[in-house]
Amino acid sequence: MTNRRAAIQIVERLREKGFLALLAGGCVRDMLLGRRPKDYDVATDARPEDVMVLFDRTLKVGAQFGVVIVLLRHAQVEVATFRSEAGYQDGRHPDRVAFTDAASDAARRDFTINGMFYDPIEEQVIDYIGGQTDLQRRIVRTIGDADERFGEDYLRMLRAIRFSTQLDFAIEPETFAAIGRNARHITRISGERIATELEAMLVHPNRGAGASMLLASGLAEQIFPGLPVDRRGDACVALTSAVHTLQRLRKRVDFPLALAAFFCGCPAEAALQMCHVLKLSRNQTRHLRFLLTHRGRLLDCEMALSSLKKLLAQPYYRDLYELERATQKAAGNKAALAALAKLHRRVLSLRGVNVSPAPLLDGHDLIRLGARPGPQVGQLAEELYIAQLEDCLHTRGQAEQWAKDWLAQHDLPGQ
Known about the structure:
Blueprint: H1 3-16, E1 21-24, H2 26-32, E2 41-44, H3 48-54, E3 58-62, E4 67-72, E5 75-81, E6 83-86, E7 96-99, H4 102-107, E8 117-119, E9 124-126, H5 131-137, E10 139-140, H6 146-152, H7 155-167, E11 170-171, H8 173-182, H9 191-202, H10 207-217, H11 219-223, E12 231-232, E13 235-236, H12 240-247, H13 255-262, H14 268-274, H15 282-293, H16 305-312, H17 317-331, H18 334-349, H19 363-368, H20 375-389, H21 396-410
Helix pairs in contact: 6-8, 7-9, 7-10, 10-12, 12-17, 13-15, 14-15, 16-20, 17-18
């Protein structure tokens, strides 16, 4: 059963029992835009306890706020009681919730394009807040006073930019001005939730627009203290290279590559330090570190074969190439792009070649040949492997002779 069918069945069941029930929020917006909604939510005047009685399988994930998850076969649908909210002391959650009617429920939502309802029985849009008009005008606008809406949940500032980025809508001027006035409060939101919003906007193909708004609004410098931003009036005139680089990335990217492009003008360690706030996973951090610390290396089109193979053996090589290509395109550096293209031809010539072969000899072999345990074994192993990657050695016998010659040169009298 699809979520859409499950949601409509829930609406029908609630209607049969005398309750008002409607599809609500983002699914209505997406249906009106001709997009396929990811989720379908239901809003109703039924209380949480009524919903839990009517449906056999439910989850009380937010019953105190009027929210119940209804499980129908393999589908999960959020069913929320119409409510009003007040008293956002933490800038994230309401202190008081009161169950109310559909019009009041619409008024407490974030943006007009997300505040509409849809009656799937009568096939009718119910719009108390001008959401249809704003959809036609292609704008993101808060419901009511923008400062109040953001004060209720400061994450909404990032959500406004995300919706603008993903839908290619403009942010209504007063709404955008309010983001600037409240940008300093974004630090009250957890790094994980900030990261979720940033990822959604920066991996989107329209990511350049999202980054521009992050910078122009002042949110970027609040999220990343130390970001080298130069403000003149209301315009952010620095980090334009980051925006241009983001725009030139391929269509589908992951979050670490997008972040590396955003921080393309920053020193690696400074950028990594600023990203601590996002609470990235270990793999994401490793990915981002590789991209930032190896920037520029691919411009050495004559690098040693062993160095090239070591880079190719890394799981993030393709993203490193993509980052370098986008960076140089953004800079209009034709010479660098030519060097990058030359290196790419070398890479293509290595198709079918094992760029990360097992070493011909291990540490025990080297000690057996006379290497002293400790740093000497490590140095010999490294240089021996480089010779192997350079295609100078192909057999164990060749490797053993090479190691013996190396030891003869390094075990000099007095050492």
